[in-house]
Amino acid sequence: MKNILIIGTAGQIGSELAMRLREVYGSNNVVAGYRKTMPTSDVMESGPSEMVDATEPEKIAEIVRKYKIDTIYNLAALLSAVAEKNPQAAWNVGVNGVYNVLEVARENNCAVFFPSSIGAFGPSTPLDDTPQDTIQRPSTMYGVTKVAGELLSDYYFKRFGVDTRGLRYPGIISNVTLPGGGTTDYAVEIYYEAIKHKKFTCPLPAGTFLDMMYMPDALDAAIDLMEADPSKLKHRNAFNVSAMSFDPEIIAAEIRKHIPDFKMDYDVDPVKKSIADSWPNNMDDSAAREEWGWDPKFGLEAMTVDMLKVIGEKHKEGMI
Hints:
Strand order of the largest sheet: 3-2-1-4-5-6-10
Structural class: alpha/beta
Order of helices and strands: EHEHEHEHHEHEEHEEHEEHEHHH
Number of strands: 12
CATH superfamily of the largest domain: NAD(P)-binding Rossmann-like Domain
Shape: globular
Largest sheet: 7 strands, parallel
CATH topology of the largest domain: Rossmann fold
Number of domains: 2
Number of helices: 12
Distance between the termini: 38 Å
CATH architecture of the largest domain: 3-Layer(aba) Sandwich
């Protein structure tokens, strides 16, 4: 049985990952670490929680020793659009914080999960079927921190034998946690606006294709990778994972199958457009499929059905 610490539990992935990990490993074996914003009430009430900041290595080490932690999921980061407004803070959390976690892991014999992103790529990266191993020259601070995290994770495995593993996530779509300032967040917001107002103003232009994934698949990917046979992992870190790719017009058309009078217009955000244009249209995730059996369950059609059902129920109950 593992003893797990999640750093960044209040974020989009962290809050749902905490609950999923507690289902798998037991509520008392998963510590929900948060900084200032508290996680959801179900996370706080279902197991141990601690204030822990990726930029404070002494506190991380204290929690690791207190709970005999052997696995750390380090989800702390500033998302793409937010990071562009405060690049210094993004570097501090996304690079210094990763280094701190890896050092604590080295000293305490912990495994580490690090989520990278499509943001680790840049304008010179092939946009279609982006290879697992390719040029990475990101044009955002968010991307810079993700590349640095990938390299640090590789280094700590090769130099010190730390069991580091990680994914390059696409945009993540959730019906539980609201977006937190990412370029791909429109693909979450559009469902909420479709249910509440039957209209949506999109910040990215038509024709902007991006890799996306439904949250249940994102959670499974993290857990499956951490449970994978290490002898079969040729890459270990920064695995491309993908489930679907679409542009705003395609997702709007899918929503109209269920809400025929849904309307969408555009008010393009130049910062988000610039970021999106530098990211892949779709990634080649064959390495993840071959090395540890990655196999997503949700495509756009199945995800849309589930998103509209769950969000619709919340709206009827006055929760949104």
